Amino acid sequence: MGDTSRPVYNHVQRSSTPNLGVGGDKPTRKLSIREAKLLQKQGTHPIKPAAFRRTSIDKSKTICRVKNKEDSLPKNWRKINATVNMSSAFKSGKRVSMGSLLSSRTNYDSDDDDESNRFVPAPNNVEHTRMIYKSACKKYDIVPSSTFLKSVEAGTANLSYQGLESLGTRAVAMALVSNLTITELSLRGNYIGANGLQCIVDMLRDNCAMKNLDISENDLTKGGAILIAKILKENETLTHLKISGNKFKEGDAQCIADALKTNTTLKSLDMSYNEFGEKGGIIIGQGLAGNDALTIVNLRWNHLRQDGIVGVVNGLKENGSIRELDLSWNGLGDIGARALGQVLKENTTLQILNLASCRIGLDGVGFLMTEMIGNDTLKHINLEKNPLTSHGACAFLQVLKNNPSFGIETLDISDIRITSEFLELLTEVKENRPNFEAKHGGTLRGKDAFIHRTGNPITLEDPFDVLLNYVKSNGLRLMDLFQQFDKDKSCGISKDEFILGIQKANLPLNLLHIESLIDRLDEDKNGVVDFSELLCGRQNHLQKKRQQILGGSNTDLTGSTSSRSTSPKSTNKWATVIKYSSLLGDPDSLVFSKADSRPEDENIDNNAAISIPVP
After folding, report:
1. Which of 150, 57, 76 is nearest to 114 (CA)?
2. What is the pLDDT of residue 81?
3. Among 145-149, 280-284, 439-443, which is the least confidently predicted range?
């Protein structure tokens, strides 16, 4: 059988102990841990207890526990290690990979690890993302953004205008490296610079969940354009990218266009409010020609003129995927309109075209429509804020009427007042196109008569009074009105949102009223009214009203004040005629305590009340 002097582990030695069920040369059953310990204590059976998983036997034949190296570490040391490694990698500028962060996982093959030691945060763990972000903020001595902490679970992180700059962006990027819950990230207006954008580029190399990215209004300039090209070349998950308002110029277009030729996943690209000019438009057109994935392109408000526009539209000849194109607020002109019409004649994909404020006149409309005869895919076209006049609108309908192959369903000329001739043509067009709709600014009758499409009577009150009356009569707060108008939840009301909100509220204000109201509220003239501007506007408006009551100034529709007028029939020179406002109630007269006294008026009691008659 072998050397009997060595300890036996697999068989039980003979024992005369009857209560353990041991007898003869072979064991009758397997011993429990308690029985084995009892035999070992008596010195009759040196068996290996099942509790000791990893053991070694020394020369004295004693059993001892071999401690793992990991037992001396805290239970969550792997989680701490991953955070420290990630922070160090971003600080040194090295590339951070998912493999390096998850290489310290627990070995699940060993059964001696406690259940608490097995916890390794998953990449989409919400608390893990928050922990990394807080650690990064503490490391860089910055205040964590509560908006980001709340948005981890929502899937959309709107960090617009948070003042993050480069360090705050780095902390956000560190938290999103392994996050799988946030698919939309907005960093608009945070001045992240090239350093902050570099952190976003490094994050996107490992993040596989991000779909929408907005880095507009960050003043990225040339260095940012190179990094954006890296995103377009390397990333395969982004579908929507906004890079508007970053002061990109002619030279920055080349790297972006080259990256577009290799990208196959991006669906929407917003390059509006930049400074691309003639050469930039030609280069961008070449990039669009080599791309077959984009469906929405926005080049609104650039420096594109005739040659630049021609370069962009030439890119549509080779592109077979773009469905929506925005060229508004560029110098298209009549020549550019003709070039666009020639391209659209052969294009079979474009459905929505925005040419608002593109300097297209009567001749330009004729060129555009006659050159694109045969196109049946374009559905919606916007020509508002162009010098068309009613004659240009009639020319558009005439060509549409004579060519039934057109597929146009909507014409937007919201700022143009049309004549009866246009209405007659519109009726004839609708006989063959019952779904066709023309959005115009109203109908002229004679020289001065004006009929509004909505039929609502236009008020003569101050437009701000009308707005505040609506808030008061519906039991709303100013915040409720702001949220009601802010459809995209961007914490700012654009002009289009303001007009749409006024129309849905059915307020008796026309476009001139709304534009004057927006001009009064938009103090920084950026085209967006935020909540602080709305509050300041109300405060200034009410202050002017008080001055009018005390000083007798009148207000016209645009909010300007006129000089004080006094009643010639009144013998009291303190009596003032004011324009009544419904915001101040409806009394027969308003009584005010006199604020100051004048020594020369000896007949006036200083403590007396002054009655101001109201017409």
Report:
1. 76
2. 44
3. 439-443
Which neighbouring-strand residues pair with 529?
Answer: 493
Determine how β-strand 55-57 pairs with β-strand 240-242.
unpaired
454 φψ region: left (φ > 0), alpha (ψ -120 to 50), beta (else): alpha
The span from the CA of 322 to the CA of 296, in Å, is 6
Reading the block at residue 578, the tokens are: 């004011």
Cα–Cα distance, 197 to 457 (Å, whole number): 52
Name the 3-class secondary structure at 416.
Answer: strand
Give the largest Cα separation in the chain, rounded.
Answer: 136
Segments of 515-605 assigned E as strands: 528-529, 589-593
And the tokens for 557? Answer: 């529709």
Place of tokens 């980001």: 148
Question: Residue 88 falls within a domain, yes or no?
Answer: yes
Check residue 22 and report its DSSP letter: B
Torsion of CA 191, 197, 200, 202, to 10 degrees: -150
257 within 8 A of 248, measured Cβ to Cβ: no
Measure the CA–CA gap between 603 and 606, rounded to whole angstroms: 9
Angle CA(276)–CA(184)–CA(324) in degrees, nearest 5?
Answer: 45
Q: How far apart are CA 369 and CA 396, in angstroms?
A: 7
Element housing 326 (H / E):
strand 324-326
Residue 171 lies in a domain: yes
The amino acid occupying position 540 is N
Cβ atoms 260, 231 nearer than 8 A: no
Judged against a pLDDT cut of 60, whether residue 329 lies above it is answered with yes
260 vs 291: CA distance, rounded Å = 6
3-state secondary structure of 561: strand
Same domain, 95 and 196: yes
Same-domain pairing of 191 and 110: yes
CATH number of residue 519's parent domain: 1.10.238.10
Residue written as tokens 């946030």?
182
Tokens describing residue 159:
């960090």
How many CB atoms are closer than 10 A to CB 25? 8
Last residue of a domain, one of 536, 551, 566: 551
Question: What is the C-alpha to C-alpha distance for residues 193 and 557, in angstroms, rounded to an integer?
Answer: 43
User: Residue 34's domain spans which residues?
Assistant: 18-66
Looking at the DSSP bridge assignments, the partners of residue 610 are: 592
**Token pair in block for residue 199:** 């952190």
Q: How many CA atoms lie within 13 A of 571 on its CB side?
A: 2
**pLDDT at residue 440 is higher than 50:** yes
The one-letter amino acid code at 230 reads K
Q: pLDDT, tens digit, for every residue of 117-138? A: 444 444 457 888 999 999 999 9
